[in-house]
Amino acid sequence: MDRVETGRRGEDAAAAYLDRIGMTIIDRNWRCPAGEIDVVFLDGTTLVLCEVKTRTTDAKGSPEAAVTPQKQRRIARLAKAYLADAGAEPCAVRFDVISIRVLAEDRALLRHHRAAFTVDG
Amino acid sequence: MPQATVFAATIAGVEALPVEVQADVTSGLPGFGIVGLADTAVLEARDRVRSALRAAGFEFPNARVLVNLAPAPLRKHGTGFDLPIALAILTATRQIPAGLTAGSSAVGELALDGSVRSVAGTLAYALAAARCGHDLIGPGGALAAARAVEGLTCHRLDVLQELRTGFSALPVVAHYCSGGFTEPDLLDVAGHAGARRVLEVAAAGGHNLLMVGPPGSGKTLLARRLPGILPQLDDAERLASALVHSVAGLDEAPLLAGRRPFRAPHHTCSVAGLAGGGSPPRPGEMSLAHNGVLFLDELAEFSPSALQTLRQPMEDGSLTLVRAEGRVRYPARFTLVAAMNPCPCGFLGDPDRTCDCADGIIRRYNTRVGGPLMDRMDLVVRVDRIDPDLLLGAEQGESSSVVRERVLATREFACRRGGLSSGLSGAALLDACRLTGATSRLFTETARRHHFSGRAVTRVLRVARTLADMDAEKRVSAAHLAEAVGYRGWENR
Fold first, then answer.
1. Which residues pair with B29 in a beta bridge?
2. CA-to-CA distance for A34 and A32, rounded, in angstroms?
3. What is the pLDDT of residue A10?
4. At what angle do helices B235-247 and B122-132 cross, to 10 degrees?
5. Which end of chain B is more exposed for a tag (fewer CB within 10 A), N or C?
6. Which of B169, B199, B233 is the last residue of a domain?
7. Mean confidence (pLDDT) of chain B
8. Do the Cβ atoms of B284 and B245 come closer than 8 Å?
């Protein structure tokens, strides 16, 4: 299974999980020239921008550790672009991270970090 | 839009300048920003406030939080902004009622568990709050000093959790209890009649004093006994001196109880250590000795550049640091007591031991202190080793309390006459001396013979005025002048 395939299956698993816990998924793999937002969903009235990170080994650290401050800033920039593009009403926004550690072909550990980071400055 | 304002302050010099902490909580990308020329310690408040609020059971808003510190051009220092920022956010998000912080200034650093810690300079914050007509919110430990400020209501907040139950108002104590400390006593000093006399003159008039003598002759012993023969700090002095200590993060309680500061920096002290400096600026030893004694042991071993910083404060009673980020003024009215050896080996002029320093070395040693500083030494006294018989004999010297009574009487006489002589100059000084024509002529002649500078003339007259005060004489006599001239070291060398 190559890296792209791993990532795609991880995002599917994350979407299935979000659906199961009652979230309303609005967008998947929203793209713009600056990059991609994996999943956008509504938690009640809060708009949540979610990064999904999938890993098959811990050799390079846990999946969530890959969401570095640089990556957080990049996601924040994407968020501004998304909000402008979607023409969304002013609303509460949150950044989540879903980390998936693949344990076997049919088993994985999923962690959902609500409000994983904020954009300070 | 949910907004709230809480009052705070930032330290500049020994003063706290009022700052408004405005919090604005809006929807948008979640984040926490602080604007308004905040230094690193203030910016770090973001993480402390976030954790402390959660630990105290409050909610940190999942929204765009913007904190503005106004006025914007003023540079803000320190961790004391943690508490006002937290209170502003809690008020803006309606987690606490707006009335809770209205009309109050807040100061305190937050720990991650929600407890509030005291910060340096509480007394300055308290004075700033009182000036603005605010109450002060802060941790109990810090408010001990704030209670010295008359008319200030303090609200104690030791952990953020207490915000749910409301503050407990602290009883106001306008005046600190005096005393409760002991100074080294002159009783322990055997012999040294001359040095004792000079120490008393220094205490009576607030004159600078240099003791020169071989190692182990008792210079330090004598210097440590000067605070014990000085009057206790009066109310205004207490606050002024305690303020400097508070801003420097030192214990101000002894000063508020009336104890004169006695600062004895080591001779490796740097320019910034003596004069103050750093970023943000902190007061130096000269300012910490405000209204007290600055003792410089081994004067010639201090770096020349550090010594020369003494000159201006010795004249003005204050010093102004000018830095890129602005200027700060620190008070520095101190009595300088210095001690040094006559030469590097220490035995020059000793009747029993020979000095084996080369002439050039002695000259170089003496020039380290330099003319301008020596010129400001009102009283120079030689402190010689004393005879072992005297040292081990049963005879004790006068006790500090006896000497202090005399010093108090002298100061009272001086005040009735028109003020301590160390504060007089020019026409007022001449007027206070009331020299007769003959005495005046004699002094002019002496001054010419000794090549006195204008400053030297002023300083000799001041000492003479103090000597006359000690005798409760309204007029300075030739004998007073002669004794005062005898204490001049610079021209007599």
1. none
2. 5
3. 92
4. 120
5. N
6. B169
7. 87
8. no
- CA–CA dist B463, B410 (Å, integer): 13
Mean pLDDT lowest among A35-49, B93-107, B199-213, B361-375? B361-375
| Residue B301: both structure tokens together | 């071993």
Q: Is the pLDDT of residue B390 over 80?
A: no
pTM: 0.84
User: How many other C-beta atoms can be found within 10 angstroms of the C-beta atom of residue B199?
Assistant: 25
CA distance B119 to B107: 8
A115/B30 touch (CB, cutoff 8 Å), yes or no: yes
Long-range contacts of A16-21 (CB under 8 A, 24+ apart): A17/A98, A17/A110, A17/A112, A18/A50, A18/A98
The mean per-residue pLDDT over the stretch B193-207 comes to 90
Taking alpha carbons only, the member of B227, B202, B259, B241 closest to residue B331 is B241
Say if residue B240 is in the same domain as residue B325: yes
Give the count of Cβ contacts less than 8 A between chain A and B. Answer: 36
Cα–Cα distance, A60 to A112 (Å, whole number): 20
Residue after which a domain boundary falls, among B119, B144, B169: B169
Q: Mean pLDDT check: name the lowest of A44-53, B193-202, B333-342, B345-354.
A: B345-354
Q: Which of A76, A90, A94 sits opposite B62 (nearest CB)?
A: A94
Distance (Å, whole) CA B426 – CA B409: 25
Q: How confident is the model over B289-325, as pLDDT tens digits?
A: 999 999 999 998 899 899 989 988 988 899 999 887 7
CATH number at residue B273: 3.40.50.300
* SS3 state of residue B230: coil
The answer, yes or no, to whether residue A65 has pLDDT greater than 70, is yes
3-state class (DSSP) for residue B17: strand
Residues written for chain A? 121
Are B428 and B322 in a shared domain? no
Contacts of B27 in chain A (CB under 8 A): 90-93
pLDDT reading at B9 higher than 90: yes
Count of domains observed in chain B: 3
Mean pLDDT on A18-47: 92
CATH topology (fold) of A3-113: Trna Endonuclease; Chain: A, domain 1 (3.40.1350)
Among chain B residues, the shortest Cα distance to A48 is held by: B29
Give me the pLDDT at residue B366, please.
80
Kindly state whether residues B391 and B466 are assigned to the same domain.
no
Describe the crossing of helices B454-470 and B437-449 by its angle, rounded to 10 degrees: 130
Q: Rounded to an integer, what distance in angstroms lies between the CA atom of residue B437 and that of residue B48?
A: 73
Residues B84 and B126 occupy one common structural domain: yes
Residue of B51, B59, B62 to mutate, interface with A, max A Cβ within 10 Å = B62
- pLDDT interval class at B351 (50, 70, 90): confident
**Would the pLDDT of B143 be above 80?**
no
Query: Token match 């502003």: residue?
Result: B88
Alpha helical stretches, state H, chain A:
3-20, 69-86
Q: Does B33 touch chain A (CB under 8 A)?
A: yes
B255 lies in the same domain as B106: no
Q: B152 pLDDT band (50/70/90 cuts)?
A: confident
Eight-state DSSP code of residue B76: B
Beta bridge partner(s), residue A43: A46
Looking at the structure, tell me whether residues B356 and B451 fall in a common domain. Answer: no
